[in-house]
Amino acid sequence: MMKFMPEPHLLESPRGREWPHPLVSRSAATGPLPVRADVVIVGAGPAGLAVASALWHLGVSDVVLLDRDGRPCQRFFDRIDTLGQRVLRSPYEHHPGVEGYRDCELLDFARLHWSRLTPVERREIRMAQAGHRSVVPVDVFEAYSRHIAAVHGVTARTWCADVHEVRPGRTGLAVHTDHGRVNARFTVLCLGEERRAAPAAWSGGVGYWDEPVPASARSVVVVGAGLSAAHVIANSLARGLTVRWVLRENEERYQCADVNASFFRPEGRARFDHSSWSDRLTLMGRHRRASVMFEFQPLLRAAEADGRLTVHRGHAVVDARPGAVRLADGNTVHGDHVVLAIGTTPSTGEGLLPADIVRARDGWPDLDERTLAYRADPRVLAVGAAACMVLGPAARNIDGHRVATARVAATIAARIGVTVPTAMEVAALV
């Protein structure tokens, strides 16, 4: 079987293009926080955007989004731009829009702006239309996210606030922020993931993948095997730095995604529906592994061949400190700056909710399989990485957000008393 190897030019999509604004209000929420709301969504990233948009379609309008940056998906794109990332790993069919309604999906949006795309980006559109793997430019995805946020009224309902606590009460949920309290009937946690910190035993004083490499550095040591590590390496090479790459595995893994493609389909998610807790843990460990997009392979191999990049394969790290990484075999890798790109940790509600609500088990919250509500308090629901032990490893992906959103939005609408259309009624609308 022939293996498709994409060209590295996909990594060079333009950033910062001007896009037409939707013909609706785009202003962010101003003034004091509302005192109460039917639904408070904590986090306005791609998951929060999907939930708010779905609730809009279901007629649930009394919604407040609370986000530390105050604009939908702003932190998501800030982190991407810190990495210098130009394309998403998610293909065109993975988007934060709502399926089953008269909505503009990501592929539709890109086609509507055909004249603004490069020839390489247009080829990706044709690949997507033919059912093949496609790569989405970050610029297109950001413009689309802004479009979705504007036409579904999400921008106008997003407040800049840092949530400190969600406290359950007899008659509702008190969402405490640095700007006051909002009383909610339901709260949806769309918390995303935080970077994984270095082990406590390590010396510290190093950098992370979501921080810029100092301008004074002439050499850098990168620890990690995933896409973030690849971007840090590519950026450093472009600056003329010497790079040393430390991998725990014996070789790099080049794949379309960290997750086996089957988990993006119903049959893959069904493997979790009929598995025990221990089997799910095994599946999570086996099928989500750090990898790099195919597009990086020519660049990294060429850099290694000409000596600009040295790869230390099959080496576990036992300590990292400024300028040095000590390996398990006793050797030390030196550089002006050390960058850790060792993954992210799902935010499960710990620290916001009482521990007896989260009921964490092996680091995962106790969620209802059908609704993604916390079993100990069904007024709190989760979308995103926290739902992995229900939906599988793809729950961390944008496409997984849409699957989770469908369950969560329908659950909230039914409990509030909004009539949720049947599948047949939705099909008649499309």
Automatic annotation (TrEMBL):
<dbReference type="InterPro" id="IPR002938">
    <property type="entry name" value="FAD-bd"/>
</dbReference>
<dbReference type="Pfam" id="PF01494">
    <property type="entry name" value="FAD_binding_3"/>
</dbReference>
<feature type="domain" description="FAD-binding">
    <location>
        <begin position="37"/>
        <end position="88"/>
    </location>
</feature>
<dbReference type="InterPro" id="IPR036188">
    <property type="entry name" value="FAD/NAD-bd_sf"/>
</dbReference>
<protein>
    <submittedName>
        <fullName>Predicted flavoprotein CzcO associated with the cation diffusion facilitator CzcD</fullName>
    </submittedName>
</protein>
<dbReference type="GO" id="GO:0071949">
    <property type="term" value="F:FAD binding"/>
</dbReference>
